[in-house]
Amino acid sequence: MLPVCTLPCDGKCEMKLIVNIHGTEKEVDVIVDTGFTTGTGFGLKLPADFAEFASYTGTGNIKLADGREVHVDSIPDAKIIQIEKHKLEEELTIPTIFMSGLQCIGMLFIQKCVLNLDGPKKVATIEF
Fold first, then answer.
1. What is the pTM of this model?
2. Is 63 part of any domain?
């Protein structure tokens, strides 16, 4: 049986993660963003200042949904170690960008889960 998180979903769905960035654990609230697609090559967006915890970073430009290109730092191997109150048995490695704005988790993560949205009840469940 997969662990299940039940989250409020009223126009947006947020969850708390604990992420390991090259040995430093950080807690972050993220929005589940189905528009953050695999086309960028990244699945998690963390605050720009979290890049200081990375042992190394790549740099480059990514194209945003509105067509703008922005410069970002990135790592291929942030590890999600906890989702809400569920400590993962096996860490989930996910390519990550560091930039300002809302923090989000996208399709690279969602494709590894079962996501159910119940609009009338304003609830989302995620099995991972």
1. 0.90
2. yes
Any idea what the CATH number is for the domain that residue 69 is in?
A: 2.40.70.10
What are 93's strand-pairing partners?
79
pLDDT digits (tens, 9 = 90+) for 12-22: 999 999 999 99
DSSP assignment of 3-69: -EEEEEBSSSBEEEEEEEETTEEEEEEEEE-TTS-GGGS--EEE-GGGGGG-S--EEEEEE-TTS-E
Q: Which domain holds residue 53?
A: 16-108
Cα–Cα distance for residue pair 92/19, rounded to 1 Å: 9
Query: Would you say 43 and 106 are in contact if contact means Cβ atoms under 8 Å apart?
Result: yes
β-pair type (123-127, 44-46): unpaired
